[in-house]
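hey
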C-alpha cells in the first residue's frame, strides 16, 4: 500500500501550488500509483476478484477525472498525460 512519505512525494511532484492536495492532477497521480500497485498484485493473485472490482472502480474514477481535466484545461491534461506516461 501507499505509505505516508510516498503519498506526500506524489503530491509534491504533481501539485499546482504550494498548498495543493486535491487538484485533479494530484488525484490522478495518486490513483495511477494505486492502479500500478494493484496491477503488480494481480501477477501473484490471479483469482482475487474482490480486489479486481476495486481496481475497475479506480480505473473508472481516474478516467472520469481525466475527461474532466481534458474538457476544462487541455494543456494541463496534455502535460499530465506526458508526465505520468498514461497514453502511448
Amino acid at each position: 500500500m501507499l505509505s505516508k512519505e510516498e503519498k506526500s512525494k506524489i503530491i509534491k511532484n504533481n501539485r499546482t501550488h504550494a498548498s495543493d492536495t486535491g487538484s485533479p492532477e494530484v488525484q490522478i497521480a495518486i490513483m495511477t500509483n494505486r492502479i500500478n500497485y494493484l496491477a503488480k498484485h494481480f501477477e501473484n493473485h490471479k483469482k482475487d476478484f474482490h480486489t479486481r472490482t476495486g481496481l475497475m472502480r479506480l480505473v473508472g474514477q481516474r478516467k472520469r477525472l481525466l475527461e474532466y481535466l481534458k474538457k476544462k484545461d487541455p494543456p494541463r491534461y496534455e502535460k499530465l498525460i506526458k508526465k505520468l506516461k498514461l497514453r502511448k
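The mean pLDDT is 94. The CA atoms of residues 70 and 77 lie 5 Å apart.
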